[in-house]
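WARN retry 2 of 3 for item q-0093 after timeout on previous attempt; input resubmitted unchanged.
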Amino acid sequence: MNNVPPEELIQFAWLDEERRERIDSETLDFARLIIAGCLENLDTIDAAILQQLENWDFARLARVDLAVLRLSVYSLFFQKAIPASVTID
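OK item q-0093 returned
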């Protein structure tokens, strides 16, 4: 949403060094997977979200809400090892 190149985004340079060091590597790897997967499948994800909107325009979705929806739809569609109930929670 802020036009940061994906390669830079998944390096988490936007986090301060102290915070980044406190996050274990498995968590960072999972975050990279989710971010990269969302970006690679954005058209499919957005189409699925758009299909479910009733009486609402896609452009009116708040940016944070849209980000959460995109991560969730990616997980539901492409992360089959994660139960849907976990993603929904």
